[in-house]
Write a structure and sequence with these properties.
about 400 residues, alpha/beta, Rossmann fold, 6-stranded mixed β-sheet, 5-stranded mixed β-sheet, 9 helices, about 35% strand, globular
């Protein structure tokens, strides 16, 4: 393997044997293959790619596409059925919740156990322990059995170990979604730091924006095979377009949007009741008029509250969608280099389009507040309000473009 390659995967496949009943597994072992008592499930099918040292690569795909299986093989916790994997350097992996922890051991004991697995001496872990405990910030729970930890504590300790063992390759599998917003910001900042030091990072996230903004390249897995590899923006856009097309083909758009709205309402209610660590929230989003003409002014007011003294790198975005959830336009204050209040208190922002070029139709507005250039979402409101555009100019499409006609002969 070339010296500038961190990971090389060739023709990698993983096939699981699925048994309907426990006794079928026993029958299979006794009959030594003369009859099959199992079904085969192909989690990975002939996957090949290379990752250069220092690259940050996102891995995206629907649930069941093979993302976690691939990362487990790269981390060495799972054996492939066929194909080869070459990994150049020490790997630290943050996989599914609590993996690599002994639930009966204390947090402190698990720190040292994980260090030993990675070949780090006790003396070296002694020097690193305070930094690990400080980043995890779980207080006296560091000396309690991890079986008593909440999911957030698991992630805090696991991530803190992974980033403090000087790994050449860091693998993060969706685990950050469990942590609270403050911890997500802390983790993203730390990953930026180790990325700048040249660490190779493999990053699985269901957030397309996180992958686009944080990763150099991306790999799209679909049903165990690579659908596309390329720049992170290109891959995420293709993947999200595919999801939209799939929804339209199945005639389930209305049901999907309705369910999404219900789920988000439930999540927001749960967070309001249980998460005492909310750093900011969107209070309201309104438009000055619900019915406007093409080329009229559109004004959107967004009111939000910040509960911290200050939220660094704070930004606000407003997106306009068509009635089929087709994304039309979505600027934010970070991209437009506009400073907005980021200190404690309630603030109102006005977003104005002086002459909206949209043609007749119904449109919806999404609003979100983020930090770290959009990497971490603090609060997001989908279809929070709508407006109708009316026009006497009859034509097809979404927007009116300035144009001219002339006779040339």
């Amino acid at each position: 393997m070339s010296s500038d390659i961190a990971i090389k995967v060739e023709n990698l496949s993983k096939i699981y044997q699925i048994y309907d009943r426990p006794i079928d597994r026993l029958k299979q072992s006794l009959l030594r293959g003369r009859r099959k008592y199992y079904r085969e499930f192909t989690a990975l099918n002939n996957v090949s790619f290379q990752i250069r040292k220092g690259e940050t690569v996102g891995i995206i795909g629907k649930n069941g596409s093979g993302k976690s299986t691939l990362l487990q093989i790269l981390a060495g916790t799972l054996t492939p059925t066929s194909g080869s994997v070459e990994v150049n350097g020490r790997v630290a992996a943050l996989l599914e919740l609590g993996s690599g922890f002994n639930p009966e051991f204390t947090g402190r004991e698990n720190v040292y156990m994980n260090g030993a697995i990675l070949g780090i001496s006790k003396e070296e872990m002694d020097r690193r322990f305070n930094e690990i405990a400080e980043f995890a910030d779980i207080g006296d729970f560091i000396d309690q059995p991890v079986k008593t930890y909440s999911s957030g504590m698991y992630v805090r300790l696991a991530f803190s170990i992974a980033i403090n063992v000087d790994a050449d390759i860091l693998i993060v599998d969706e685990a950050l979604a469990v942590g609270d917003i403050k911890f997500q910001i802390k983790c993203i900042d730390k990953m930026k730091e180790i990325k700048n030091k040249g660490t190779t990072i493999l990053f699985v996230s269901h957030s397309g924006e996180q992958v686009k903004r944080f990763c150099d390249r991306a790999i799209w897995l679909q049903q165990g095979s690579i659908r596309y590899i390329g720049s992170s923006s290109e891959v995420v856009n293709r993947y999200e377009d595919s999801l939209q097309l799939e929804m339209l083909k199945d005639h389930q758009r209305e049901v999907a949007v309705s369910n999404e709205r219900i789920n988000k309402d439930l999540i927001n209610e749960q967070e309001t009741e249980s998460n005492v660590d909310i750093i900011a929230k969107i209070n309201s989003v309104t438009v000055d008029k619900n019915r406007i003409e093409t080329f009229e002014e559109l004004i959107v007011y967004v009111k939000y509250t910040i509960f911290e003294n200050e939220v660094p790198n704070f930004l606000l975005g407003v997106a306009i969608y068509g009635n089929d959830r087709k994304y039309i336009f979505g600027p934010n204050t970070y991209l437009d280099k506009v400073e907005i209040p980021k200190t404690k208190g309630t603030h109102t922002i006005m977003y104005k389009i002086p002459k909206i070029p949209l043609l007749a139709g119904t449109y919806f507005i999404d609003t979100g507040i983020f930090t770290d250039g959009g990497l971490v979402c603090i609060d997001y409101k989908s279809d929070v309000c709508q407006f109708n555009v009316e026009s006497n100019y009859f034509t097809e499409g979404l927007v009116h473009m300035e144009h001219e006609w002339s006779v040339v002969e």
